[in-house]
Design brief:
Chain A is built from no helices and eleven strands. Chain A is an all-beta fold. In chain A, strands 2, 4, 5, 6, 9, 10 and 11 form a seven-stranded mixed beta sheet that branches. In chain B, strands 2, 4, 5, 9, 10 and 11 form a six-stranded mixed beta sheet that branches. Chain B has a five-stranded antiparallel beta sheet with strand order 1-3-8-7-6, with no helix packed on it. The chains are: A mainly beta (114), B mainly beta (112).
């Protein structure tokens, strides 16, 4: 398996623009997670899905953020409108059973909002 | 409230010596603990885990120790190698819940 695939690897956009991050999880994994890494807040969970259903979105910072998982092999994280404070590395991860099983992370998308 | 804490942002050790990375947690419901390693420009990768029914788990040069009464776990790397230089994240979760909570990470530098 190719692992968790994220695109794009880098995204530079201007404040106010819409940003869409994409993720393809490992086939057969039932859980999908979106994390954000910043210097100030470390690695924080934004939202996770189980069998394509959002389970916990309490980490989503505000209504500008939304995530979808239309099928088992694809998820998106959208920010609209983007702001400079959204600049961070966004990771997608997948796993078989959630909390007790290891997460497999993608290589992340580095987002810069100017 | 940060439920998983790694109080040392960085650690530097000499090649061949032992590296000890520490992690504290506050939620007594956590029953599964994992360590991840992260190189620059890559995502974290799983290293080793331990469940709350054990107090030690070993995998090659890596050993994780769990002290439930102190709500503390540590990762020992023996012997340390320059290739071990990375950021190490501690994570905790419950077996019946989906998510893991991560610490802020400790940057390990192993000097040749």
């Amino acid at each position: 398996d190719a692992g968790v695939i994220q695109s794009p690897r880098h995204e530079v956009t201007e404040m106010g623009q819409e940003v869409t991050l994409r993720c393809k999880p490992i086939s057969g994994h039932d859980y999908l997670f979106w994390y954000r890494q910043t210097m100030m807040r470390g690695l924080e969970l934004l939202i996770y899905f189980n069998n394509n259903v959002p389970i916990d979105d309490s980490g989503m910072p505000e209504d500008r953020f939304s995530a979808k998982m239309p099928n088992a092999s694809f998820s998106t994280l959208k920010i609209q409108p983007s702001e400079p404070r959204d600049s961070a590395v966004y990771f997608c991860a997948s796993s078989f059973y959630g909390g007790k099983t290891p997460l497999h992370f993608g290589n992340g998308t580095r987002l810069t909002v100017t | 409230d940060q439920q998983v804490k790694q109080n040392s942002p960085s650690l530097s050790v000499q090649e061949g010596r032992i590296s000890i990375l520490n992690c504290d947690y506050t939620n007594s419901m956590f029953d599964y603990f994992l360590w991840y390693k992260k190189y620059p420009a890559e995502g974290p990768t799983f290293l080793i885990s331990i469940s709350s029914i054990k107090d030690k788990n070993e995998d090659g040069r890596f050993t994780v120790f769990l002290n439930k009464s102190a709500k503390h776990l540590s990762l020992h790397i023996v012997p340390s190698q320059p290739g071990d230089s990375a950021v190490y994240f501690c994570a905790a979760g419950t077996a019946n819940a989906g998510k893991s909570t991560f610490g802020d990470g400790t940057t390990l530098t192993v000097k040749p």
